[in-house]
Amino acid sequence: MPGIPADEEVVHERVTDTDASRNRAVGMVCSLITFLCGLFAVVLVAKIILTLADANPSNGFASFVDKFSSAVSLGFDGLFTPASEKIGVLLNYGMAAIVWLLIGAALTYLIRRFAAPGPRREVRYRRSVE
After folding, report:
1. 112 burial type by CB count under 10 A (0-12 exposed, 13-18 middle, 19+ buried)
2. Residue 116: its pLDDT value, please?
3. Number of domains forming the structure of the chain
4. Strand pairing report for 125-129 and 11-15
5. Residue 28 lies in a domain
6. Which of 57, 63, 87, 95 has the most neighbouring CB atoms within 10 Å?
7. How confident is the model at residue 1 (pLDDT cuts 50, 70, 90)?
8. Which range of residues forms the domain containing residue 49?
9. pLDDT confidence bin for 13, thresholds 50/70/90
10. Is residue 83 part of a domain?
11. pLDDT of 16-37, one tens digit each?
12. What backbone torsions phi and psi does residue 91 show, to the nearest 5 degrees?
C-alpha cells in the first residue's frame, strides 16, 4: 500500500456501536414529542389569531381550530376572566401554548438525559488482522 512501510502490518477494524440504535430511538421519540407539542402550541396560537381577527366562527377551519384548541388547552380555558373576551383568549390560550412548549422541552431533556448513553462509555469492537 502506498504510504505504509512494508514492515508494518495492515489492520482492518470493524467498529460496532451498540448504542447506535438506542440513539436513533431516543432521537425519534424526542422528535415526535417536539413535533406534537409544537403542533398543539401552533393550534393554540391560531385560535388566538382567529379570535383577535374576528374570524367567522361558523367557518369550517375556524370551527376545527376552535374544537382542537379546546381539546389541547390543558384546562386553561377560563383561568383568566378579564372584561374583554379577546384578552381572555389571549391570556388563556397563550398560557396553554407556552406550557405545551415547556412540557415538550422538559420531556425531551429528561429523555435525552436518562435514556441516551452517556459520553463516557466503553466502545466494543472486533479486530481482525490480515
Report:
1. middle
2. 79
3. 1
4. antiparallel
5. no
6. 95
7. low
8. 38-116
9. low
10. yes
11. 666 778 888 899 999 999 999 9
12. -70, -50
Contact at 8 Å (CB) between 81 and 115?
Answer: no
Q: CA-CA distance, 49 to 43, in Å (whole number)?
A: 10
CA neighbor of 47 nearest in space, from 116, 104, 96, 99: 96
Q: Any bridge partners for residue 11, and if so which?
A: 129
**CB-based contact 43:93 (threshold 8 Å):** no
CA angle 8, 12, 14 (to 5 degrees): 150
54's enclosing H/E stretch is none
Give, to the nearest 10 degrees, the angle between helix 60-71 and helix 20-52.
120
Whole-angstrom Cα distance, residue 81 to residue 107?
Answer: 30
Grid-cell match 367557518, residue found = 59
The reported pTM is: 0.76
Torsion angle of the four alpha carbons 64, 65, 71, 74, in this order, in degrees rounded to the nearest 10: 180
Q: Which three cell numbers stand for residue 51?
A: 379570535
In a domain, 125, yes or no: no
3-state SS, residue 58 = coil
